[in-house]
Amino acid sequence: MLRRRLNRWFGGEDRRVDSRTIYVGHRPCPANEVFIPPKFCDNRIVSSKYTVWNFLPKNLFEQFRRIANFYFLIIFLVQVRASFVCMPTQTVISDIIFFKIRTSWLPLVFLTVLICSQGYEDWLRHKADNEVNKYRVTVLEDGRRIQKESEKIKVGDVLEVDEDETFPCDLILLQSSRDDGTCFVTTASLDGESNHKTHYTVPDTERDVESLNATIECEQPQPDLYKFVGRMHIYKNNEEPTLRSLGPENLLLKGATLKNTQSICGVAVYTGMETKMALNYQGKSQKRSVVEKSINAFLLVYLCILVSKALVCTTLKYVWQSKPGQDEPWYNEKTLKEKETNRYLNMFTDFLSFMVLFNFIIPVSMYVTVEMQKFLGSFFISWDKDFFDSEIEEGALVNTSDLNEELGQVEYVFTDKTGTLTQNNMEFIECCIDGHQYKYRDASSEVDGFCVTDGPMNTVQQKAGREREELFLRALCLCHTVQVKESTEGFIASSPDEIALVQGAMRYGFTFLGLESKTMKILNRTNDVEMYELLHVLNFDPVRRRMSVIVRSISGETLLFCKGADSSIFPRVKQEEVEKIRMHVERNATDGYRTLCVAYKHLTPEEYDQVDSGLREARLALQDREEKLMAVYNQVETGMNLIGATAVEDRLQEEAAETMEALQGAGIKVWVLTGDKMETAKSTCYACRLFKRNTELLELTVRTLEYPGKRREDRLHDLLLEYHKKTVQDAPPAKTRVARNWSSQDFGFIVDGATLSMVLNSSSENNLHDYKDLFLQICQNCTSVLCCRMAPLQKAQIVKMVKNSKGSPITLSVGDGANDVSMILEAHVGIGIKGKEGRQAVRNSDYAIPKLKHLKKLLLAHGHLYYVRIAHLVQYFFYKNLCFILPQFLYQFFCGCSQQPLYDAAYLTMYNICFTSMPILAYSLFEQHISIEMLLENATLYRQIGKNAMLRWGPFLYWTLLGVFHGLVFFFGVWFLFSNPALQDNGQAFGNWSYGTIVFTILVFTVTLKLALDTRHWTWINHFVIWGSLAFYVFFSFFWGGVIWPFLRQQRLYFVFANMLSSVSAWLVIIVLILLSLLPEILYVVLRKLFLFNFNQKSVKGIFCHFSGLSNVFASRWKSLVVFILFFGVFFIFFLFFYCV
């Protein structure tokens, strides 16, 4: 015994690397040894992001990582600083700062509200964690049952859990209230499956748990839900310890719920953040849309322009003052304080003053408008009546409004299967016995309801023999792991298709009565009870893709019944029997049904004894247990007789297939990530039309890696190279690919969780890099990808791998269960389905919808419109602010760079807040450049805005050049007018404030009318805000200049606006310059309608998306020509009249 412990401590063949030793009940083993309790983490769960101490610094750091927030903070501090250092002569700048400071704090207020809301959300997470951690559990200590808080559970504690309770940590099952030593659990919160799974107690531990002396040696915590390796040493008196192997069938996972079992006892092996549930939890991170990233890039460009302007003007100012007599003219002598001020300090102060003067080029109000647009726009999703589901009486839910526009940029959709694509409601459809098809049509208990031929060997209306029919139905009643519910009528099983098969047998008169003490009972159609002794269950696994049972009848006959996939059964039966069934199976698989073949075999006593000893020996093996079991399974499951096949349907969600087709038509690639078996998931993909009849399936699973004479790693590498050649190297160029496909040949890719672990966790770093690149390229060149037997964390890893791939594609994850939370949080956009698996997915999602079918409208309609609206909003804001500040910059060349503003301080402040903000906000909320019906009918329209088409550098350059052009027209057009000094009837000349007011008036009308031309969907709100904004500007100008305001030190605009409008020349120049500014764009659209009516718009969609509004105005070529002639005629008359005057 000492030698064994030394081997375990210092090495030896029995020692497992990276393992932990657990003392059951904290009792030393053997009892005379000194017990040193090992240290493990406690059972506290922490899902919160902040603490009281780190909330403020951590949250502020996250907020100011955003360029815009950091800029607003800096510019606010600059303005505050500049307000203290302005010279007495800089009264105009002081007034600008006075107004500017009172508006620059608005984004900081929004930021404060955001910080408070995030703090409240984290407080709710703390509250939820506290509820879980303070939950009372029953712990067995020294023969007593003690109530403890869940967070105080330690590794090694023995716990008692009652029916319908959730396991507080990962437990090894020691005792069950059921006589057969089993218990049933549901793992909906872990893998999305609501079916009952069977778990088994460890032998020799059931009777006296409270006095059990045992140690458990198991692997360190890891996130794979379907893998667990361990062993238990059971000590009895002074005898040699009994060794029992432990597997996933003995492990009860935290988050699972005990069902159909009164109570169980188990020992804690993993606690707290080391449980498999916690290891599969993906922390919630702050998501940022691609539009926000584009805004940050544009902001940097305009920030560089702002700094450049300030540097140029500061330099020119001191160049100007270096000339004799310019630094201190006779009319503006310096004060003593100004003369004593350091020259470099003056230069820095002037630079800050220019920054304040020109910082209007950075649209501070744009960020406020964007937040308002996102917040208000999200209500349109919640209010959409098409999203209302009458069954649950709920509609769509928006948890995050920051990602509305991201719905229009999705390139990959990752969807769960169970409860998302399907209803998780298996139904028996039909069966085939010896080539004869049987469909159930009535409630008859005999197999004579409906029979047609399904093969060339049969004649019309011929049926299989009665003996074969009963043998087939007995196989369905015996070959399964179904249990009968004790309290109510019905069945429970780990797989829903097993229940469907048992229920299908009931329709034809064979009823499974249950399993009692290893005896299976069947009620046949003559109401006689047949009893079979269950000898062995050969469980299903993804490599064999079949399961078997060995039973013994009362007459002593030993039978093996086997069911599984056709590719797994056909090679193991007599080949002359295969052709009878093959056509039936292929047809049902094409229809999207889950097909299983059924076979049987008579075992002689010698054969059974050999199998029995082989199975017992393999199940006690400590090393290579799975391989030894596999060898015995393969040995006995040969030479079988094929009876027939079944077809089971997992009903799809309403319009699931149509939704998947629409998404693929929109250029979105759909990946199915599920924890279900490959056969079931593949059938669902066929039913959803993700896989089609001509789709070539590429399989990368544990089964395909099994190749004689090759290591799995070598076989994996060979398969990756082979598939890469097919999908990537031999694929035609992207331009030649058809609309539905991404390659000339449809490829579907299937991968399972075990193989994915090999790809993502290769032992060699070089191989890891190669494997991941090859794997990703193969996936991206397939029309659809199916990932089965996925753990929740693996789902998130798949999403992260695609999200971080070349091009940074936008990803969306949709699911309905707690097992989907990780991938929902990992994707750019997370969608929760309000299904039957609880509301954890809904709570952690960005958007929640009642059914999968609503995803089509959410993306193709709402997402499309949201993106177009906000993209136009962003480009328009930068454009109108460039139009606004460029004349101000040009004016400095005419005033000696003296920081003299062109516009009054009130105009500077009101421009973005009142005069031009409401029209673009209304546009961004109500614009529909294409009707919703058209967007849903033509999914390909979604592709035209993909890859951030409207916020690329091309459109940004166009809008920038347009702003420069308009700014030059405004400034120099008015400058040309002022070349005539006498512009009023009384012969008086206009001053500099009149000059700026005329420029500002042209500016406000031009940018507003530009937006009106871009509007295609007019509502009364659009009319009200557009024409109301122009009317408000005129009213405000009269009102502001018509009253003497006591709080102003200088009344610069007193009656300036009224005097300006008294001049006919001013009226003419305003009208002419507005028409001249809008003329090029209208001219372009007219010419395009006239001469390029059939031009392929796809080639210019990225750069000229902003012309969509004008295209609606000029609906036909002749109408365009008439409008253009009228517009040009009016412009020519005004220009001629202005020239004559």
Going by helix content, strand content and strand pairing, the class is alpha+beta
Which overall shape is indicated by the principal axes computed on the Cα atoms?
A: elongated
Question: How many helices in DSSP terms?
Answer: 36
Largest sheet: 10 strands, antiparallel
CATH topology of the largest domain: Calcium-transporting ATPase, transmembrane domain
What's the number of structural domains?
Answer: 5
What is the CA–CA distance across the termini? 115 Å
- Helix percent reads 40-55%
Q: Provide mean pLDDT, rounded.
A: 79
CATH class of the largest domain: Mainly Alpha
- The CATH level-2 architecture of the largest domain is identified as Up-down Bundle
- Uncertain stretches: 1-17, 84-102, 442-462, 735-743, 1092-1119
Query: Looking at this structure, what is the CATH superfamily of the largest domain?
Result: Calcium-transporting ATPase, transmembrane domain
Radius of gyration: 38 Å
The share of residues in extended strands comes to 15-25%
**In which order are the strands of the major sheet placed?**
18-17-16-27-26-25-24-23-22-21
Q: How many runs of DSSP E, i.e. beta strands?
A: 34
Q: How is the quaternary structure best described?
A: single chain
